[in-house]
Amino acid sequence: MTTTYREALREAIRDALRRDERVFLMGEDVGAYGGCFGVSLGLLEEFGPDRIRDTPLSESAFVGAGIGAATAGLRPIVEIMTVNFSLLALDQILNNAATLRHMSGGQVGVPLVIRMTTGAGRQLAAQHSHSLEGWFAHIPGLRILAPATLEDARGMLWPALLDPDPVLIFEHGSLYNLAGELADDAGPVDIDHAAIRRPGADVTVVTYGGCLGKCLDAAEQLAAEDISAEVIDLRTLRPLDDATFVESVRRTHRAVVVDEGWRSGSLSAEVSARITEQAFEELDAPVERVCSAEVPMPYAKHLEDAALPQPDGIVAAVRKVVSGGG
Amino acid sequence: MPSLGADMDEGTVIEWLVKPGDTVHKGDPVAVVDTDKAAIEVETFAGGTIDQILVPVGERVQVGTPLATINGTGPTPQPAPAPQRPATPAPVPARPAQGLPSEIQGGPPEFPVGNPPAQRAAPPATVTSVDRLKASPYARKLAHSLDVDLTAVPATGQRGMVTAEDVRRFAANPPRPSTQPSTKEPTTTPAPRHVVQQGSPRAAIARLMTRSTQEIPHYYLSTTVDLGTAIAWLSRTNRELPVAERLVPAALLLKATALAAQRHPELNGYWTEDAFRPADQVHLGVAISLRGGGLVAPALHDVASLPVHDVMARLRDLVERARAGRLRRAEMTEATITITNLGDQGVESVHGIIYPPQVALVGAGRIVERPWAVDGLLGVRPCLTLTLAADHRATDGFTGGRFLATVDRLLQTPEEL
């Protein structure tokens, strides 16, 4: 069937609500308004106000309530409108959700799922365009997911709810309108492994989320130049599936990491470090990174485009590692 | 082969001044060595009778290689810089066990303060990392499995790295050993007009200056000095001197710089092993450009204690000998601070690169007439832009600033220099 990323996410929530009566969705405007990005449109009518709950504008309060509900036995899905607002709940996420199992000596787990929108590219300027998933991937005790395809949008939520510990799902804002074919029987997917989205022989391009499409476009351009790029979608940012990308680098001997986050101290740095640690002897060129410019995200379209990783920049980075020079 | 400069790894004996059977005393010149930068007389560290010449004229050897053996007759005969293996069987008392080498050999010979380059050169010169081969890790692995000599593979990768593709290409089509240059593979880059040969003076300067720029955090200061009084004093003094003894402004500048370095000892000495070691005296290195290209910066010893007339005479002598390629070892290794003067070339200021392991370099430009305000009145004065490049590990700008101010002040009373 033809569907969109948004509809696939909605179908995943609907499926979870049906499968398990302990599951409920809460967040700002998820009910009557249908969600800021329209993901939960129609769910209030279908499941009622007990299971689709609008919350006050206090991220700290409703994420904390979600943690409490999870420890008490429910399976909450908490929606935070965009990743910048998650900073208001950072204490709840880092100090409570991620640590309670440890602090209670294993007595209390937090089977909570938090969904949020991440990323730039929609002219929302410096305060609503962050890619902070790399920060959250720093925190032990959390699992971080970044669905980049319709299959993952449809399939990641249920295994996330089955996880006995907190899981954060980062939905890239530019993907909601992504349309395509999804199998009618599409369902839960694996959330432990990275995926090779395009096989190749000359270079490994490691990416995730909103940059996957740009990397696939770049790979298509590179194919015309006879450069065969393997594109890997990390899918799970924590715990990182090093085995998949390291194995790929062992075949291609070159790597480019594409990450919409800022370069310094980023997830791309982590991936690059792991490649160097685990496959140093296989590298034929320094690992390249394509990241966002280290500036507050500009509002103006042309400046925002210039600040973000783009297919041309990815192509240039690949050329640099493949043919030297530079 | 002694180290005749911080940058010297090898040297060529170009002349022996002694032969077997000659009696020599400590300090006698025994050979002339070409260091890539200059021909320098090498003095013996020990007295005795020359027994055997080990390195013939024309041979290039690493620093630390024994050049000759001396049968010691003096009270403390000691071979020069710690030979790697004893050249003559040392009179070691017979011991039953394999011996306690450290006990027998003792430590390295003690050098007087102010000669760290020679000390530094004592370990074998095989540990130079400057010319390390650059190859990607995978290229190294591949070269190993294909039995390819990486040093022979032309590099096309980033920053001059040999890549796996370079290794494969080389392995598939190794260059045939041939004496005909015409069989060389065509190269896409045009042949450079002038190639800097390994072992040439240029290469030695390149190594030293690269090291300085990479290792030393330089800071730069600059001031303009009114030389009106000094130039007036010079012309008065020169009137009474025979032409051959006349003073040039450089003599005043050298003397003032040396006195200032004496008063600010933090700028006079060496940075070695992560610490600054001040020198007892000011041995002022003077940058001298050589005819044929290249540069040396031999030392004028203890300039602070010399009258200006002697400084002038010694400067003339030093420049002449530098250009004739007859500098002495101590001149090549013992400078504690260096001055460079590019005024002859018409430049007005020079921001130099420090000569390691020294920590300061003074630069002087051309003396130019400038409008100059003194006490609210404008006049035309001969002015000199004086600069200091200093090692920020050893000193801060505050010290450097005080040093330049001292040079300026000293130049205002030339009769006292």
Quaternary status? heterodimer
Write down the domain tally of chain B. Answer: 3
Lateral arrangement of strands in the main beta sheet of chain A: 3-2-4-5-7-6-12
Question: Briefly, what CATH class of the largest domain in chain A?
Answer: Alpha Beta
Instruction: Write down how many β-strands of chain A occur, each being a DSSP E stretch of 2 or more residues.
Output: 14
Low-confidence stretches of chain B: 74-130, 178-192
Percent of sequence in beta strands of chain B: 15-25%
Distance between the termini of chain A: 46 Å
CATH superfamily of the largest domain in chain A: Thiamin diphosphate (ThDP)-binding fold, Pyr/PP domains
CATH top level of the largest domain in chain B is Alpha Beta
CATH architecture of the largest domain in chain A: 3-Layer(aba) Sandwich
Say which CATH homologous superfamily of the largest domain in chain B is assigned. Chloramphenicol acetyltransferase-like domain
Which two chains share the most extensive interface? Answer: A-B, 12 and 13 residues
Q: Taking all residues together, what is the mean pLDDT of chain A?
A: 97
Q: What is the distance, rounded to the nearest whole angstrom, between the alpha carbons of the first and last residues of chain B?
A: 39 Å
> Which shape of chain B, going by the Cα principal axes?
globular
The helix-and-strand class of chain B reads alpha+beta
Protein name (chain A): Alpha-ketoacid dehydrogenase subunit beta
Cofactor (chain A): thiamine diphosphate
Domain Transketolase-like pyrimidine-binding (chain A): 3-178
GO molecular function, one term (chain A): magnesium ion binding
